[in-house]
Amino acid sequence: ERTASLRATQAKGDGYRAKEYRSRLNGAYARLRRLKERVKLAPAALKTAALNAKLAEQSDERVKERLRIEGDREATDVAHMKKDRALERVQERRISDLRPLEGTQEKAVRAATRAAVSEDGVVRRESGEVRDIMRRARSVGASGAMHARVAERWGGAAISELHEAKAYGQVAEKLLGAKRSLSDGRRDALEARQMSHGLEMMAAEVALRRFRGDPSGRNRRELERVRE
């Protein structure tokens, strides 16, 4: 019995050990299969690793190229900044040189403005004087024409009196006085017309000189008015 019990115990231990060995063997087979799969996948892994290395190298080259481009860009920006600063300094010097000229030009403009204002005042004053002279000339001309008409009437009356004097044998003193009055009236009318014409010519000359100096619409209308 004791031997049988030992054998049974030994058989049970052998069964456990057999299971353990079988489990280890199965694990070994599994590791072997994984190794074989790794061996099969090794070329692809190597290719992937080589590709990754190449991509990493290309990426490194691109990074270097970007760094180089950025460096060139920074250098270009610095050069442009230097040029801009140099141009700014040149422009500042030119502006500082032109400031006295600007002051001179402003003075010249102010002087020209004052002269233009003064000339405009002179022109207005001369225009007023010319209009006043022409108004007086027209008045004188109208007065002379009136005197001439009166003298003509007197002349007619004198002629009638002459006929009457001849008929009645009176002295012809009235006729001579009437003729003198007629002559004086005609002479006054002629002088008035000549004076009016002379004043009109003076006004036309002033308007023409003003129009040549400043051919504006106002001076053109003034010239056309005095030429009418």
UniProtKB/TrEMBL annotation:
Stated name of the protein: Uncharacterized protein
Record the organism: Hemiselmis tepida
